Structure formats: structure tokens, C-alpha cells
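Students often ask why inverse folding is considered easier than folding. One informal answer: many sequences map to the same fold, so there is more than one right answer. In these notes we will look at a single instance of the problem. The structure comes first.
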């Protein structure tokens, strides 16, 4: 099969580079699901979308969104066709692997104040030590106020981090397998080492608590009802001397979220109702209220039908979903020449070759995968070719090398046509992931073409 390098499609590369600047700003400023949803609402509102919970009735051409518990959202552009003819849905997840502070995180040991964490999603734990880390999240207090925590990304802020053992004393550690070199319970962040002068008991921890009290008006007990995420500090940067790539935290899956968001935001009139679904919790199985398995999206379609004056809302919502087409947009494993042995080269995703489609993901015999139908894949590739979008077809590594999942099967369960579509990433789930700017751009063009597909 002929493979095309997407860079060669462009004489003038400035549209690609310009789009990447917007993306870099987006992921640098919005590193967790709450921040992504907040900024996505800003972008949608700037493109004429209204909060669906504030409107009384809707009609063709209207643009609206619904937010779910500050961590997920669904946005729609009402099409000319009846909703029960189906939607064109772009879905991506906005959570990324990270470390979360435990409910009772703080302790003091030998002059250090430390914070205990529990990792979220699939991480190689050894990648998270001795790098600059930031704290983002919220503390919900008993009086109902919710305090935003944001430490470590402003260049004047302090950072935090996790220790690793010095090489000089690592004789035992270096004999351990990769999964055990850094144990989960050793992922504790250092928060300080200066004691509070007139404090006898745990004076360093007391001093950290005093700082938190002064800055955020929170007490130690408030950590119980908090969501504080420990993430790589610093901005996304150009990668490579040719500035062809972006190095940053959380491309998985904010890169598909941003491209899907911009595709929907910039789309005007549509035949079939366009939908954007940004969901949470994919990295831990798409579970819970804000994950893709939640009834939120289905109920949002129900709300649309209600606002359109439909009488048979819940059944018609199912019908609308059944007749829908979806791109489940999530990152793909990019072929890495340093680790070529995990890939089968004919069926790998290559950086620079455009939007990736995965007919299936899963592991051990496609287990857990939404194996998209041949007919739907044919429809999709025809749309891409008509719009001159460069795309490629890939699976996730060699047979029996490992695997992974996405939100595709969850929407497949509605009996809709779904295929995985996304952007190839290197270093997936590492604190610094890599994408090619041209793939980001092709994905954005591909998502736009999909929304307009008849
Ligand atoms: Mn993902
Ligand atoms: Mn992932």
C-alpha cells in the first residue's frame, strides 16, 4: 500500500505551524480535564454556542453545549435533517495519565514534608521521578466553596517533584525489573523542608499547611474532598530542529480533543447534526459519571429532542444514536525506529503520514475492541479522499505484543457506526509525549470533512 508523507502536500507550511501554536497554548494552559472543559466552553461560546441548559427551544442551525460536572461536555450544531436520522459525532477524552494526591496525603519524615499519591492510568512509574511537577486541581470545602489549586506552571512558582535514588547507591535497585524500579508507594512528592519555628510536632508539615492556609484558606482535612493532580510542569514546546513536532504533556488525548473541538467550533451549516463529545476517565476504563459509559451523552441527545419539541424523547434518542456515525478520536502508537520490534511495519502508524484509522484496537485477539465494519470504513475513507485528507491505517503494535482500548466500543453498543481515528504519538503516557504538527493539522481537516459527510 502506497504511503504518503503529509508534509509534502504543503508548499506553504504556515497553516500547519499556525494551528500548532493554538494547540500548544491550549495544552500548556489546560492540563487536566476540568481546565480543558472550562477552556473548551470559552472557545465554543466564542463560536456562537450557548449553554443548552439556558435555552427554551431550538431549531436548525442552533449551536449549543451541555457540561457534565465540570469534567465532560457535549456540543451540537443542529442539522437540516431530523435528529433521528443520526448525528455525526466526534468523541475524544480529556483526561491523561498522572499522579493524584491521596485523600490523606501529608506526612513528615526526617525533616521533609511529603505528599502521598496514587497514580491514575497506565504509567511507567520510573518516568515520573526527578522531573519538574506542578499541582492542578480543586479543593471542595464543607461550606460549599471550591478552591482552584494551580502551582508550578507560572515561571515564578515553585515546583514539586519525586526523588530517585542516587546511582552510587543503586546496586540493588538496578537489578529490579522496570515495573518495580520505582514502586507505586514511592511516588511521593516533596513539598518542603523548612520547619515552623515555634512548632514541636511535625514542624515542616505545619509550615506547608500554614502556606496553604494563607494562600488558599484550606485545612489539612480539606484534602479529603479534593482532586489535586500532579502533572509535568512547563509548557509544550517545539520538538526537533525543524520544529516539526510538539513535545508536551497529555497529547493523549487532548490532541484529538482540541482538533475535534476546533473542527466543530468552525463548522457552520450541516445536513446531519454535528456533535462533539469530550469525556473524562478514559484512562481508567471510561467508568463513572463523567466517563464515556455514563448516560450523559444519551441524555444530552434526549435534551435536544425535547428542545426540538419531540414527544417520544427517550426512544428517539436511542434511534438517533443508532443511526449515527462516529469517529472515536484517540491517539495511536506512532512507529518508533528505536523500538521497531514492537510494531509490524505494514500496519503501523507513522508520524507525518496523517490521520490514523484503527479498524480495531484491543489485545490478545482483538479482545475488548470495537472492530469497525468494512462498510463504514469504506464510507469514511471515501470522505477523507474526497476532501484530500492524508490518512493512514494502523493497528496498535504487533499481534500479542500488548494492546489498549478506547471509547469506541461504548458507542458501538448503541449500534452506531464507529471507527477509531486519531493522531500518532511517540512516548505515549510518558510525561513528555510527541506528535507531528502535520498529523495534528490533517486530523483537524479530516474531522471537518467527517462532519460534512452525507
Ligand atoms: Mn487515549
Ligand atoms: Mn491513554
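Output (designed amino acids):
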Amino acid at each position: 500500500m502506497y504511503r504518503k508523507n503529509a508534509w509534502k502536500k504543503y508548499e506553504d507550511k504556515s497553516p500547519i505551524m499556525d494551528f500548532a501554536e493554538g494547540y500548544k497554548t491550549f495544552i500548556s494552559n489546560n492540563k487536566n480535564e476540568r481546565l480543558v472543559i472550562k477552556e473548551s466552553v470559552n472557545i465554543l461560546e466564542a463560536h456562537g454556542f450557548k449553554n443548552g441548559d439556558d435555552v427554551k427551544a431550538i431549531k436548525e442551525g442552533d449551536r449549543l453545549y451541555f457540561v457534565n460536572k465540570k469534567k465532560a461536555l457535549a456540543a451540537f450544531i443542529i442539522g437540516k435533517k431530523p435528529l433521528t436520522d443520526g448525528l455525526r459525532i466526534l468523541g475524544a477524552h480529556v483526561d491523561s495519565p498522572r499522579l493524584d494526591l491521596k485523600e490523606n496525603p501529608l506526612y513528615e519524615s526526617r525533616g521533609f514534608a511529603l505528599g502521598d499519591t496514587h497514580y491514575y492510568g497506565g504509567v511507567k512509574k520510573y518516568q515520573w521521578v526527578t522531573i519538574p511537577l506542578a499541582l492542578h486541581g480543586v479543593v471542595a470545602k464543607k461550606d460549599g466553596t471550591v478552591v482552584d489549586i494551580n502551582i508550578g506552571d507560572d515561571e515564578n512558582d515553585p515546583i514539586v517533584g519525586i526523588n530517585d535514588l542516587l546511582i552510587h547507591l543503586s546496586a540493588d535497585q538496578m537489578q529490579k525489573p522496570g515495573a518495580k524500579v520505582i514502586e507505586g508507594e514511592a511516588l511521593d512528592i516533596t513539598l518542603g523542608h523548612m520547619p515552623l519555628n515555634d512548632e514541636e510536632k511535625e514542624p515542616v508539615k505545619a509550615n506547608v499547611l500554614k502556606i496553604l492556609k494563607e494562600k488558599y484558606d484550606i485545612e489539612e482535612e480539606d484534602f479529603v474532598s479534593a482532586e489535586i493532580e500532579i502533572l509535568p510542569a512547563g509548557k509544550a514546546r517545539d520538538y526537533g530542529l525543524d520544529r516539526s513536532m510538539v513535545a508536551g504533556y497529555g497529547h493523549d488525548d487532548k490532541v484529538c480533543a482540541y482538533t475535534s473541538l476546533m473542527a466543530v467550533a468552525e463548522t457552520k451549516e450541516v445536513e446531519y447534526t454535528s456533535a462533539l463529545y469530550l469525556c473524562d476517565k478514559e484512562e481508567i476504563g471510561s467508568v463513572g459519571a463523567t466517563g464515556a459509559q455514563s448516560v450523559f451523552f444519551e441524555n444530552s441527545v434526549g435534551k435536544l429532542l425535547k428542545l426540538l419539541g419531540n414527544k417520544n424523547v427517550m426512544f428517539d434518542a436511542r434511534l438517533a444514536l443508532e443511526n449515527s456515525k462516529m469517529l472515536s478520536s484517540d491517539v495511536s502508537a506512532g512507529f518508533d525506529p528505536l523500538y521497531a520490534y514492537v510494531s509490524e511495519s505494514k500496519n503501523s502508524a507513522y508520524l507525518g503520514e496523517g490521520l490514523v484509522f484503527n479498524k480495531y484496537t484491543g489485545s490478545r485477539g482483538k479482545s475488548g475492541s470495537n472492530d469497525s465494519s468494512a462498510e463504514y470504513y469504506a464510507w469514511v475513507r471515501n470522505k477523507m479522499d474526497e476532501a484530500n485528507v492524508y490518512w493512514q491505517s494502523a493497528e496498535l503494535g504487533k499481534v500479542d505484543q500488548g494492546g489498549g482500548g478506547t471509547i469506541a466500543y461504548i458507542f458501538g453498543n448503541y449500534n452506531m457506526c464507529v471507527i477509531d481515528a486519531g493522531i500518532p504519538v511517540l512516548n505515549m503516557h510518558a510525561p513528555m509525549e510527541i506528535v507531528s504538527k502535520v498529523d495534528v493539522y490533517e486530523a483537524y481537516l479530516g474531522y471537518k470533512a467527517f462532519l460534512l459527510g452525507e
